[in-house]
Amino acid sequence: DVKVTQSSRYLVKRTGEKVFLECVQDMDHENMFWYRQDPGLGLRLIYFSYDVKMKEKGDIPEGYSVSREKKERFSLILESASTNQTSMYLCASSEQGLYGYTFGSGTRLTVV
Amino acid sequence: GESVGLHLPTLSVQEGDNSIINCAYSNSASDYFIWYKQESGKGPQFIIDIRSNMDKRQGQRVTVLLNKTVKHLSLQIAATQPGDSAVYFCAENAEGGGYSTLTFGKGTMLLVSP
Predict the structure, then answer these.
(1) Which of A31, A86, A82, A34 shows the shortest CA–CA distance to A60?
(2) pLDDT digits (tens, 9 = 90+) for B3-33
(3) B3 found inside a domain
């Protein structure tokens, strides 16, 4: 069964900490995505990547960065966590072209 | 997760009924559409997709209808079961900067009573 695995289901971090959210896919997909999901706002795209070492900003990149050193791994980095980054973070991957995304189970991050 | 359903429109049905969930999309240039299901505490799960050269596509107990004239997408679930209770999202592809990504609707919560 194909999978997108997010390393943590729940995280609690302090304001100002640097936070790493890890995502690994085993489907050899070229494309990977990070979304955040908030009540009333739906899923919003933070960053995406269409190839190794390549990244593109999504709709809400401020306060975040990403790293894709290997095809199967896409990391989301919160440079200095703030309380307004408390959210559910969802990683996804897809093949090139018009195909649906496969999502991970999500990481619920709380910044205190 | 548990809070995804807050602020969402809700459709309540009885077990065995047929359910219809609607979605209005924004971009007349979109040519690929998907429905996702998200259960509490889980990530979205792909249900069915449709390309703009079709107006109907059927899966197992689900049918997606696409009306490009009015930019409307619907998901029909036959013989709805309690296990169908979840938040349902539509998504459309969006082109920008030479790349295609998916833009998601806010979702509809489906509640199925036994």
Answers:
(1) A34
(2) 455 568 999 999 999 999 999 988 888 889 9
(3) no
**Contact predicate B40/B4, CB 8 Å:** yes
The answer to whether the Cβ–Cβ distance between B101 and A100 falls below 8 Å is no
Give pLDDT, residue B97. 65
Q: For residue A4, what is the nearest residue in chain B, using CA coordinates?
A: B43
* Cα distance between residue B76 and residue B74, in whole Å: 6
The partner residue sitting opposite B6, judged by closest CB among A35, A40, A56, is: A40
**Burial class for A90, CB neighbours closer than 10 Å (0-12, 13-18, 19+):** buried
Positions in chain A short of pLDDT 70:
1-2
Look up residue A102 and give its amino acid: T
Least CB–CB distance from B6: residue in A39, A50, A103: A39
- Of A61, A79, A75, A74, nearest in space to A18 by CA: A79
What pLDDT is attached to residue B1? 38
User: How many beta carbons lie within 10 A of that of residue A6, not counting itself?
Assistant: 19
Q: Is A48 on the interface with B (CB under 8 A)?
A: yes
CATH classification code of A4-111: 2.60.40.10
* pLDDT score recorded for residue B8: 83
Domain CATH for B54: 2.60.40.10
Per the CB < 8 Å rule, is B100 touching A88? Answer: no
